[in-house]
Amino acid sequence: MPNITLKKIAEILGISVATASKALKDYADISDETKQKVKSLAEELDYKPNSFAQSLRNRESKIIGLIAPQIVHHFFANIIKGVIDAAEEQGYLVITLQSGESYETEKKQLQLLLDKNVDGILISLSDKTINYDHVADIIKKGVPVVLYDKISKLLDCSKVIIDDRKAAYDATKFLIDTGCKRVAHIRGPLKPQTTIDRFLGYKSALKDNNIEYNESLVFETKDLTYDDGYGIAEGIFKSDEDIDGIFAFTDLLATGAMVRLTELGMKVPDDISIIGFSNWFLTKITSPPLSTVDQPGYEMGVKAFKLLYREIQEKKKDVNSPKEIIKIPTKVIPRNSTRPML
Fold first, then answer.
1. What pTM value is reported for the model?
2. What is the CATH code for 62-162+297-330?
C-alpha cells in the first residue's frame, strides 16, 4: 500500500486537510466527533506524519550534530550515550562525528553539519585546535553551539565542563595526604584548556601544601596514550629525583606508567603511588586497581544536550539569553595504586 497522506484521510472523510491536521493535534476548535473519526482512520490506515515536511514547516530539522575527538574513548563514549538518550526524549536525531584530534577534520565536519541543516552543534575541541575562527563563524551565523569538555575561553557560547583545575588539585592533594613528597605530573602539550587547568591545579596543590614546584618533575607527552605512559615511565625511573607519586593526565597514561615501573622493579604503591584521571572501566582491573578522578561523562552528555535544546527553543522564539557555563562535580576514587591516607 502506498504511503497514506493527510490529504488522503481528508478526502475519505470529506473534510479539509487543515481540519484533519487540527484534529490529529487536538485543536480546541475541532469537535470531538471529528477528532475521533480522523484518529480512528489514521490508525486504521497506519498513517505516519511526514517528518521532513513537518521540519520544513517548523523551520527545524530535529537533528543535532555532535563532534568528539575520540569515539572509542570511554569518557567520550559515555558523553555520546548521554547526549543520544537525552536527545531521543525530545525526538532528536544525533549525527555523531569523530575529529580524531585533527583541526582540519574538525573544520570539515562542522561544515558538513551545517550542510545537513542541523538545529545545533555540540563539540569538544581537538587537541590540535589552536585557532577557533571556524567555530566563532558558526556562532556568528546564529547556529546554537555548546562546547563540552575541551573548550576555549575565547569562544562566546555556552559550555559544559568539569572544574579541571579543582579536580587536578584534589588528585595531587590526595597523593600528598597519603605521604607523597615528590609528586610528578605527566601531561600533554599545553594547548587545550583542560591540559592547562590540570597543570595549574597540580601546581596549586603543591604550593598550598608547602611543596616547592620543580619543573623537572613534569613530564610532557604527545598523545596521552598507554604507550606514551609506558615510554615516559623510563624517564621517571632514571631521573635523579626521588619521585614517590605520579598524577597522570589520563588513566591510559597512568596505566602505561604503572605497568612499566612495575617491570623495572618498583612496587606500586609501596615505592610509588599513581593516580589517573577519568575513571575508565579498565581502572578496576589493572594490577593493582588504579586510583583515579571520576569524570562523569554520561551526566555531561545529558547536560550538554539539555543546554543546547534550550538554546534551540530560544532561537525559535527570538530569545537571546546569556550564555551559561555548567560545571559537573568530580571526585577522587581511591584504589590500591595509592597508599592509604595518613
1. 0.80
2. 3.40.50.2300
